[in-house]
Amino acid sequence: GAVVSQHPSWVICKSGTSVKIECRSLDFQATTMFWYRQFPKQSLMLMATSNEGSKATYEQGVEKDKFLINHASLTLSTLTVTSAHPEDSSFYICSARDPASGMMEYEQYFGPGTRLTVT
Amino acid sequence: GDSVTQMEGPVTLSEEAFLTINCTYTATGYPSLFWYVQYPGEGLQLLLKATKADDKGSNKGFEATYRKETTSFHLEKGSVQVSDSAVYFCALSRTGGNQFYFGTGTSLTVIP
Question: What integer best gives the mean pLDDT of chain A?
Fold first, then answer.
């Protein structure tokens, strides 16, 4: 099946710095990518939806200036957490799909996630 | 709004035991329902799905039936194996929509 990778898998950064997380579709073109956030023992919460070449659509309550999403190519989306604070520590997961390939709307392929710890 | 409530874990079972993980949902209309599995260090993988009432999704010995009358989609397996140890997520998605609503996940550990 389709594979989505994330890099890094784990990152520690100091408070006030920025960190970038990459999400890549390895064997298909992902016109749409999604970013989720998961707190311990909680469900995945959708943060934003990004379509290649256009601005991301953020869910209510997600700060777009803090969580910068760039989907510059059909195989890569990046999430940059700017001026990170300890409360941003979480597990970030991306998913991707390519509607043009005939994928159903529920056929999203998930990355393994990135654990961010802000000290 | 739409939501999914999932049985809390962790769940520990002996090999060959029967597994049930409860999942109920709240949604208007007719969502599609899913079970995803996440093995250690890997991304979520679609385990099974059901797109309309009374559908039964099945895969790798796991089954779940879309029960509209009880708004449930419980996951079952008759005989679990050590290799089934993972975190299981129940989720729903609206037809034509992009967004998934996930449960909190249930960690399953199967001991030999």
Answer: 89
